Here is the input.
Amino acid sequence: MTTSQTDLAALHDRQQAERELFDLLRIPSVSADPTHTEDMGRAAEFLRAKLESLGFAARVDATEHSGKAGHPVVYAERLEAPGKPTVLIYGHYDVQPEAPLSEWVTPPFEPTVRDGRIYARGSTDDKGQAYAHIRGVELLLSQGQTEGTPLPVNVKFLLEGEEEVGSPSLAAYLQAHAEELGADVIVISDGSRFAPDVPTVTYGLRGLSYVEILVQGANRDLHSGSYGGAAPNPINALAEIISKLKDDHGRVTIPGFYDGVEELTPEEREMWARLPHSDEEFAASIGVPALPGEEGYSTLERLWARPTLDVNGIWGGYQGEGSKTVIAAKAGAKVSMRLVPGQDPERVTRLIQEYVPTIAPQGVKVEVKALHGGQPVKVDLDSPFIKAADRALTRVYGKPAAFSRTGGSIPIVADFRRILGAPVLLVDFGLNEDAPHSPNESFALEDYHNGVLTSAALLQELGLQELGK
Ligand code: BES
Ligand code: MN
Ligand code: MN
Here is the structure.
């Protein structure tokens, strides 16, 4: 028998769930920073021990990519529901670097509650959302202690430590463990709901091509008086290159960039137009007076269904106090291109590598280095798993789910389909206003607890699913 939502909510120990998440948030598991390698191991072990205490066979697996050690994967399973679907829950325990530290109101690795929100790096992305599933499973198990019901589905957890650096080791790990990781559906909570009062099933992620443009001028930094006007200036050259990557209509100029891009169906356009979105509020929420972008598309279309190019960082020359009259020898920029279904990251990377040298001014050497990428993803809305998620969200929020895509990327998701052959179900608990990757990242306590309840309800609903359907 399926325990009612009211009973589940009554069983959920909020305080204990918060305490445990805070312990996890205190571990500075920054995957990009080699000085945190030990913390990565500590976070993985924390999760393994927790899952073991819930009766899972749980282990920490070392990983590697191109001969180098990667951050460990936590794998755990409890397969005690013969004839029931197997659900693989994926999440990541690594977090983005905390910089700039001075912008944090309270320290990034000392979780603090203010105004009903947990402030900490990783609170929403993705420790809080991933841990909600662990507590969701625990909730179902604690109910079993009184009624003798086991978990309604077979559950596997796959928690990685390299998502924020492009999951370099995970595809090989999936390949090596493909049989063990087999599942009927893969559940992921690592993104944002459409709006605070809108329970959401996400059915699309953008892909990514991330490159670094390097510009080399003279063989050393030069006096800008003695050489200015004659010597090539790599920073000016870089600015010129960047300004040519988009035209006045907000379109990316790289030849072939838009080839194959899937157009929205009229049904999808209509569905999105009905979502409660306001450009004014969206602009106000990030403190800007206008939303420049590709002409001819609405904001949601630009965010979810159109590819784009953004400079994410730029360096070169003197950055210190006051002035220094110098022409730098080198400059560089980090560029992300968000991709949509129909585009291939490797192809797009090749296209920008071919294009940039053709628009560079004379006298400088340019190089476009590929950093990482990921395939775009679109989930079939017409699936029984989507319906199960809708039922679970309706139970928790008292209203049916909205279906939206998102502009972010989770590069490994396409590999789940390719290597494990399983469909994914993206049920996000966070919000954009949680400010993932920014200073003062947070996660509303209410969203965390609703995440726990949604996870429990979702596993119950998936347990009602007939296999092979
Ligand atoms: N959780 C995000 C992905 C995300 C962001 C989903 C916003 C939905 C909305 C994930 O941790 C992330 O940050 N992904 C990176 C990928 C990159 C590091 C390869 C991203 O999207 O920039
Ligand atoms: Mn994430
Ligand atoms: Mn992230």
